[in-house]
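Replying to the earlier thread about multi-chain prediction with a worked example.

Input:
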Amino acid sequence: MMMKTEAEHAELAQDFNKDEERVNWHDETLWWLRQKRDRIAHQIPEWEQLRETASTIKGNVLSNLSAYLTQFEEKAIANGVTVHWAADGAEHNNIVLEILKSHGVTRMVKSKSMLTEECHLNEFLEQQGLEVIDSDLGERIVQLAKEAPSHIVLPCIHKKKEEIGELFHQYLGTPEGNADPQFLTETARQHLREVFLTRKAALTGVNFAIAETGEFVVCTNEGNADMGAHLADVHIASMGIEKIIPERKHLGVFLRLLTRSATGQPITTYSSHFMKPNPGKEMHIVIVDNGRSVQLGRADFRNSLKCIRCGACMNTCPVYRRSGGHSYHTAIAGPIGSILAPNLDMKEYADLPFASTLCGSCSNVCPVKIDIHTQLYKWRQMIVQNGYTTTTKKTGMKIMNTVLSSPGAYRLGGKAGRAVLKYAPFMVNNKLNPWYKQRDMPNPPKESFGEWYSKNKGEGKDKA
Amino acid sequence: MKVGLFIPCYVDQFYPGAAIATMQLLEKLGVEVVYPKNQTCCGQPMANSGFEHLTGGCNSLFITNFSEFDYIVAPSGSCVLHIREHLHDDANPQLASEVASKVYELTSFLVDVLKVKDLSARFPHRVGMHQSCHGQRGLHLSQMSELVAPEFSKPGYLLNMVKDIELIPLSRVDECCGFGGTFCVAEEAVSVKMGKDRVADHLQHGAEYITGVDMSCLMHMEGILHRQQSKVKVIHIAEILNGQAEL
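Result:
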């Protein structure tokens, strides 16, 4: 069981890599976004200062979180909004269910909320006999495919347009073989319009919750969140406790960073402010902890809560681009997901901090300067110290340590290693050695540098 | 100036040429170089696997071997970064941090400490420069493409002193090659794919050689080049700068 957990990302990534053409296309699509991000960031001379400012604001938020949350709640209530608190995903789901039940609603429209993915809200409501339709185009596509989003900003980035055409043919009755993006988008638009007009309840995520005013801001490109929320009688907004920013003026910093980092656009098409319900309607905010306060208490990892969910770390991650979002088997994939998930379940996600070369590109693109790759390293230590590693690995590391701590053993081991490579290459050049599967071993030199040095350099001429 | 030569274990065992070039280059530049023969490994393979708590032996060995020197120089960004960030000794933390602060990667030692202005080296080939992540993003040997900040490159500055060398451009200037220490076997599929893509970028731009400051990345890319039966070779930057490489 533990073996399986540890190897999970590697195995799923290997599956993804069976189709190299798809990997190339996935890699190039996301790299294109990384380049767009670079181009637009370079148009702002104070870009690095902006990142620093955002990081500092979020640092302040994390240090004063309870005060800001209380302030936000007071203001929101004064605005006429009902505020709910949920300690975990199950509480969140039950709160949503109760709100829907109390209005006799059995069908809900939902837009762009990674938090509800984290809480598995759709599955829960479906088990209770309620229907949820995701209105974000990408999320609707993965919902039709009965899959999870593979990217927090581009949920169906792993799907090619031909596959989307097939799904639409199957579920929305488009002609077979039609994969024209414009045609498919128009089909989705018509399909969703009916959904918007007939649903009495809408759930959205929250990008920023402003403590000063009690309002929240939802950023989308498609405007579907607005369509859902404005047409429904009940608007439920689900937010993690870390979504708070202190004042309205801070929004400028984050809106400038968010979409430039995410997709290389100057700003999202819609940055909608929600403050109070329209007359005769209801607005609910569900504030969710679900492990966040535990993470806040982990000194090494608390900065992960600064995340504004732009997905830039995924777009730049050379591993993510070549392993696909589903290889992370968690709601939030990629580098940020790999430092968030172990907080929720260290055993289940023990593999994720190892799904990285620690190249550090993620930390450099992060608009709130989370030290992602340093946290990946620290999670590795934490996971091993808590025993979530294999016995094989533990034994191997102990042997390695014994050899490397003793110069004599090291010299002997090195010689033996080179002899094996030189005289019996089949010993290591076989399928049991993962290095050799698609790579050759280095040619063993006739002597090590240490040996060469002893022979050629005066005082070292003693026997090695 | 007395420099302790810190040779990463896999360079010692598999790429003595890079170590010899490093030593000869430093000697040519008037530095007294000593290789403490009891050195083994910096401990990074264990630490990056989550076993930093086992690296005490490597740490004390490193401190014993190197504390006497003015500087410690290694032909590797990755091992140097590990020592800089993680060398510690509970019994003598002051000494450990002193030793850690004296460790330099070869090209940054040449540029920042020796302030080298010219080199007598010639390498009439088309060369692709691979930016190893730990050297680049960890030690800031070159500017990082993610940041909005002025360009610079210490290895590039030195390579430009080499006669007749042609540095080729790359489509992705600083993408990781996928070596990643134990990542290269634990995540074999992605590691190899990353390596293949990195190598392809160099090949598409006509490289005859791929160079860099870290032999580990180069070893990984060499393994892929060999498997593809490519004629393109990898070479440590020290061998080019030393001017003794086979032409």
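The first strand of chain B starts at residue 2 and ends at 5.

Feel free to reuse this layout for your own posts.
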